[in-house]
């Protein structure tokens, strides 16, 4: 039964597996050596706000990993009649940065603190001033320093600090490794050395509040690897964690773990200079590979790296699609209350297309999808908010357009720093994410919001897990001295097709009017945060 070429390839382990723990789904993608998808699976999970911190349950994470792998294994058996026992290479990815602190036994000292937390303002601003380098609130070093400033008891016991991708990699291999892209969101990277910035490490170590702890920063941080290197092998314990049935064999090489920003760059072929990508989900971020350093530090712009170590300017807004999804859920409930069984794909398509029939500026409506704090506009907490005046044109098309505009509004504020003040040249922006599944609508309004053409590749729906699988495949199949950019262009995207949508002038003008309303209305959002009681407690 192994005559089929794909079946033979799977049986021989001529495959690569990418696993990504996103903000709403854990996803796995198995590819062949041509980077074509053979099987995929996913598991839905949700973050929780517990004791003031956004977090995910580690038992739920492990259950989700196992469920995702089990579904993938079943799909392989169903479609190719072979049991998945070995894989050529594996790569783990996860939502970027955050804070995982482990003791000597490898146990969590505090619950995982995700990128979504806006609780490290004092630490982030202090380190930014100390380093003359932007340290965002979500970065691991900001979380660590804030815990130090707050004199949290767990800090003394830290033996290892990592990100979620690094933690999953650690569970599967026992290796304290991190890909340079994810590492660049733990601590600043020296581009020339392709390692943590040594001068800044010394500056941090010299801080009075840090000196009293028994560990050294370089001892608790993971080792940095670049794309193409091997960063460990699947251990016996790791194989059983992923596949409790015992079918999966240990010894499989793993590439460096990466964040979802890095896998997004790979999945959109955006690792070369002058290219950019846009990733849309619970958060939205745009990344542009730089030709030269920025002239100054911007609060709205983070400096990270590609998976192969090139500097990247990153603009990230914490909130994007959550509020849209909540409203679509309300429309679904209405359907069900009417005794109808809604098709969610059709529901999204119909409602999104309504936005194209709207007034250019959204008819005077206003929305803030702030489920959490928003770093770009300076909010430590958020309140989802929809506002209109008696003169607003409250129609379904305007309602939908405004919520799509709002998804990109905070991002636009950060983008203006790059394009207007730094004159960064962007040859193309490739976008991916669920918001673009409905043809053209999200793409057209995104192009208007950014005032630049936006391309969506035919492979955009494959997502970050596919990008992670490509990085695992690159480790195995690259030619000597073949760069990641060359590998992607020649071997992954050589036949990829995309659709580019240019901004429509009326939409651009309408978005400009909406942005005036959005910036003026931030005071309304601030009042909501201050006065809208949550969990019986006033902020």
From TrEMBL:
Lipoprotein listed as a keyword: no
Family of this protein: Belongs to the FGGY kinase family.
Protein name: FGGY-family carbohydrate kinase
Domain Carbohydrate kinase FGGY C-terminal positions: 277-475
Pfam families reported for this sequence: FGGY_C, FGGY_N
Keyword vocabulary terms for this entry: Kinase, Transferase
GO MF annotations in UniProt: kinase activity
Domain called Carbohydrate kinase FGGY N-terminal: residue spans: 17-239
Source organism per UniProt: Paenibacillus tritici
Matching InterPro entries: ATPase_NBD, FGGY_C, FGGY_Carb_Kinase, FGGY_N
């Amino acid at each position: 039964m192994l005559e089929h070429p794909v079946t033979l390839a799977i049986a021989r382990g001529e495959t690569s597996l990418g696993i990504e723990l996103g903000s709403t789904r854990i996803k796995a993608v198995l590819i062949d050596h041509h980077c074509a998808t053979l099987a995929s699976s996913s598991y839905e999970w949700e973050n929780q706000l517990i004791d003031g911190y956004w977090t995910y349950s580690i038992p739920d994470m492990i259950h989700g990993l196992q469920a995702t792998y089990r579904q993938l294994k079943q799909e392989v058996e169903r479609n190719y009649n072979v049991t998945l026992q070995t894989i050529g290479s594996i790569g783990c990815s996860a939502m970027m940065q955050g804070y995982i602190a482990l003791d000597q036994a490898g146990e969590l000292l505090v619950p995982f603190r995700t990128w979504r937390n806006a609780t490290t303002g004092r630490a982030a601003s202090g380190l930014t001033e100390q380093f003359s380098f932007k340290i965002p609130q979500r970065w691991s070093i900001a979380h660590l320093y804030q815990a130090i400033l707050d004199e949290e008891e767990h800090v003394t016991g830290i033996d290892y600090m990592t990100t979620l991708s690094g933690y999953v990699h650690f569970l599967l291999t026992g290796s304290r490794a991190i890909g340079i892209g994810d590492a660049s969101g733990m601590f600043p990277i020296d581009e020339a050395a392709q390692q943590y910035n040594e001068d800044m490490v010394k500056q941090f170590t010299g801080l009075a509040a840090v000196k009293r702890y028994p560990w050294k920063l370089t001892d608790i941080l993971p080792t940095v690897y670049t794309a193409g290197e091997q960063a460990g092998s699947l251990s016996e314990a790791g194989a059983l964690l992923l596949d409790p049935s015992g079918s999966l064999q240990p010894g499989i090489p793993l590439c460096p773990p990466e964040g979802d920003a890095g896998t997004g760059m790979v999945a959109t072929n955006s690792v070369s200079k002058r290219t950019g990508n846009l990733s849309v989900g619970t958060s939205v971020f745009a990344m542009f590979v730089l030709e030269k350093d920025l002239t100054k530090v911007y609060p709205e712009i983070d400096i990270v790296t590609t998976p192969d170590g090139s500097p990247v300017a990153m603009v990230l807004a914490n909130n994007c699609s959550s509020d849209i999804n909540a409203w679509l859920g309300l429309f679904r409930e209405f359907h069900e209350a009417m005794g109808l069984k809604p098709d969610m794909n059709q529901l999204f398509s119909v409602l999104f297309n309504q936005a194209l029939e709207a007034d250019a500026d959204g008819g005077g409506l206003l929305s803030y999808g702030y489920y959490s704090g928003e770093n770009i506009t300076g909010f430590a907490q958020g309140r989802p908010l929809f506002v209109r005046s008696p003169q607003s044109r409250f129609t379904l098309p305007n309602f939908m357009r405004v919520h799509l505009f709002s998804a990109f509004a905070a991002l636009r504020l950060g983008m203006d720093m790059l394009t207007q003040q730094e004159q960064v040249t962007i040859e193309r922006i490739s976008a991916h994410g669920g918001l673009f599944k409905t043809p053209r609508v999200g793409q057209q309004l995104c192009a208007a919001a950014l005032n630049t053409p936006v391309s969506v590749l035919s492979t955009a729906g494959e997502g970050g897990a596919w990008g992670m699988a490509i990085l695992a495949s690159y480790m195995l199949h690259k030619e000597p001295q073949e760069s990641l950019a060359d590998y992607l262009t020649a071997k992954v995207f050589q036949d990829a097709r995309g659709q580019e949508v240019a901004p429509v002038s009326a939409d651009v003008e309408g978005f400009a009017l909406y942005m005036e309303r959005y910036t003026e209305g931030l005071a309304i959002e601030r009042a909501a945060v201050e006065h809208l009681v949550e969990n019986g407690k006033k902020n």
